[in-house]
Design a protein that fits this description.
Layout (H helix, E strand, L loop, with lengths): L2 H21 L3 H10 L4 H22 L1 H4 L3 H26 L1
């Protein structure tokens, strides 16, 4: 791995983290950086989402005060988005194999 590639990934991670802490949506930066570094699109997508799991957990922890009294809605959206993610994963696996 060349110095420039490592620098690209490092700077992309920093910029993605800044964007994520301000407004969310680090994928706008991190996914293209992974593609530019030569990672295949499916692996880049998996890596990107795997890395952002901790971002989502941090957002939940920092929003606990605002979520008070809205747990039923929060759980509904968590379950429905998880079902959608699992279904999408199976579709991607089925298409790519």
């Amino acid at each position: 791995m060349s110095f420039w590639l490592i620098l690209l990934i490092f700077i992309g991670g920093i910029i993605g983290g800044i964007i994520s802490s301000i407004a969310g949506g680090a994928s706008i930066v991190s996914y293209p950086v992974l593609l530019l570094s030569g990672v295949k699109p499916i692996f880049a997508n998996i890596t990107n989402h795997g890395a952002l799991i901790f971002d989502y957990i941090g957002a939940i922890v920092s929003s606990l005060r605002e979520l008070k009294g809205h747990w039923r809605t929060t759980i509904f959206y968590a379950i429905s988005s998880s079902i959608g993610a699992i279904a999408g994963t199976y579709l991607i696996i089925g298409i790519s194999s």
